[in-house]
Design brief:
The structure holds two protein chains of two kinds. By secondary structure, chain A is α/β, with parallel strands linked by helices. Helix content of chain A is 43%, strand content 14%. Chain B contains twelve helices and eleven strands. The chains are: A alpha/beta, B alpha/beta. At the A-B interface, helix 2, helix 5 and helix 6 of A face helix 7 of B.
């Protein structure tokens, strides 16, 4: 029996190992600031807040970069829910776009996978084989409509020839239960050109809307 | 191949010279620097030249008529010279050597040492820039490096030869005089845990290998050379079993003053690295140069590991006796 197997059987042993690594500085932080050990330490707390169900996670690539375009209403819970749901379903981290470059909020959010909202930042992440979570604009009036999608932010996917995957986030900001529905990658013209990004943005927005329409329960009262 | 090496007296320049001396394709090596070489050189010719002595530098370069110029002569502030001397020396050396080289008929390639500090770390700047990102330096050292790149590009344009700007990550190692290395080895190190972002490092040996490889490849354009992975300042300090002292905002002035009193002055680009991070995408250099630098974690581990000094001369003398 391996030492890891013994550790898994002892309550708190894994946490003790993680805290030991933090004390010695031997934990990993990637170039964008993601700290997987810190994410693992915080995971039980996040688990108390949200109950997640993920559908269609097998549509995500097991290796290599991809852009996950997701809807949001107020936009507080969605990035956390998406990141945790995908991590638990696939073991991969989601790098959510839109972190402010301002201390201490920015550096803290980067530890949990946040990245700056820049096309070259997104392109760099995709080249490095990361999953990038790209939020659509907020639509606080209705949870049934998805927001807009900035065309420039999808150019990175075309430039690096990585799949764009629509994701519908179904849940309430103050609620506990969330559903994450992952759609099939949206086909696009890999040759690029002035229209390619605009058409891709439009097609992706439609796909997220369609997923949301299928996924929303009919009994919701707003 | 005739190779001109500027900055031959520095740790990097001497090691680059030794690597070139081991290459049979390199027939002649001429070096110049403010300081004499730090290790033994075997078949190279060295000239001590003040950075401001343009006449002597131009004369030496034109007489030698190099085929490749390896401009390693960059002075990092607080490395071995004061910030002002470093800035003036770097600019003067680049203008005289690269300017003279541009008029040499045999010139085939220019390789200049630069650094990822040229990208700058202003708010909203890309975290891990690749070579397509325009330089926008935010520190005096970054501006010095950007100036050297500009001078080299102009020289290359005049001579019609490729110019490789090797943008090295912050170099630390057990023996190189680096302000960052000195600072991180203090017994107690000021860090800003609330705002710090990760930085990547480069081992001195990998920096030298990259420079020599660039001389033979003839790539036209910049190349980022950094160790894979990154660490935060707090993490590096803990790895070295030093005491992290949390500071923020104006506390950095006090921390920098205290570090200077302890013999480890902290230049602006190093302070920027500790608080705003400093990384780059080194994938292109790995492909073009065929190198695989040590990871940042390995570099930090070596920085704190005091390797035993191998006294080769003493051992040889003892054996002879």
């Amino acid at each position: 029996m391996s030492l890891d197997a013994v550790r898994r059987g002892i309550p708190g042993a894994t946490l003790a190992v993680q805290l030991g690594r933090r004390a010695r500085g031997t934990y990993a932080v990637d170039e964008w600031g993601l700290d997987p050990d810190l994410v693992a330490i915080a995971d039980p707390v996040l688990g108390l807040r949200w109950e997640l169900a993920v559908e269609g996670a097998d549509r995500l690539p097991t290796v290599g970069g991809a852009v996950l375009v997701f809807n949001r209403r107020f936009g507080v819970s969605e990035p956390w829910v998406l990141a945790r749901g995908i991590r638990r379903a696939t073991g991969r981290f989601v790098r959510t776009v839109g972190v402010p470059d301002l201390a201490p909020v920015g550096p803290l959010l980067r530890r949990f996978g946040g990245v700056l909202d820049r096309p070259d930042e997104i392109a760099g992440l995709l080249r490095a084989g990361q999953l990038v979570g790209l939020p659509m604009s907020r639509d606080v009036r209705s949870r049934e409509r998805v927001g807009g999608l900035d065309v420039a932010r999808l150019e990175a996917a075309i430039e690096t020839d990585r799949p764009v995957v629509p994701v519908a986030m179904v849940g309430r900001e103050l609620g506990r239960s969330w559903r994450i529905v992952v759609g099939s990658p949206v086909p696009y013209d890999a040759e690029g050109g002035p229209l390619a990004a605009a058409e891709l943005a439009e097609a992706t927005r439609s796909e997220v809307q369609a997923l949301l329409d299928e996924s929303l329960p009919t009994s919701w009262w707003f | 191949m005739r190779v001109l090496v500027t900055g031959m007296g520095g740790e990097l320049g001497t090691r680059v010279t030794n690597l070139l001396e081991a290459d049979d394709a390199v027939t002649d090596i001429l070096g110049m620097d403010l300081f004499p070489p730090r290790r033994r050189i075997f078949r190279s010719e060295f000239h001590r030249v003040e950075p401001g002595d343009r006449r002597k530098a131009v004369h030496l370069v034109r007489d030698f008529d190099p085929e490749v110029v390896l401009h390693v002569g960059i002075f990092e502030p607080h490395s071995r010279t004061s910030p002002t001397e470093a800035r003036l020396g770097t600019a003067a050396s680049a203008v005289s050597v690269l300017g003279a080289a541009a008029s040499c008929p045999s010139l085939q390639a220019i390789v200049v040492r630069s650094g990822i500090e040229v990208y700058g770390r202003r708010r909203g700047a890309p975290t891990r820039p690749d070579e397509t990102i325009e330089p926008a330096p935010t520190s005096p050292f970054g501006r010095s490096l950007a100036h050297v790149e500009q001078v080299a590009a102009e020289a290359g344009q005049v001579a019609g030869v490729p110019v490789t700007a090797v943008r090295l990550g912050p170099i630390v190692g057990p023996s190189i005089p680096s302000p960052l290395g000195r600072y991180l080895r203090l017994p107690a190190v000021a860090v800003d845990p609330l705002s710090e972002l990760p930085f990547s490092l480069l081992h001195q040996e990998d920096a030298c290998q990259a420079m020599v490889a660039a001389a033979s490849v003839g790539h036209d354009g910049p190349l980022n050379v950094v160790g894979a992975g990154a660490v935060t300042a707090t993490q590096a300090v803990l790895m070295g079993r030093r005491i992290p002292v949390p500071v923020m905002g104006p506390g950095w002035r006090l921390a920098a003053a205290a570090a200077e009193l302890l013999g480890a002055p902290l230049p602006p680009h190093s302070q920027e690295l500790l608080t705003r991070g400093c990384t780059a995408d080194g994938a292109l250099a790995r492909t073009v140069l065929g190198i695989e630098p040590r990871t940042t974690h390995e570099v930090v581990a070596q920085l704190y590991r005091w390797d035993e000094v191998d006294h080769e001369l003493g051992a040889a003398a003892g054996a002879h006796a």
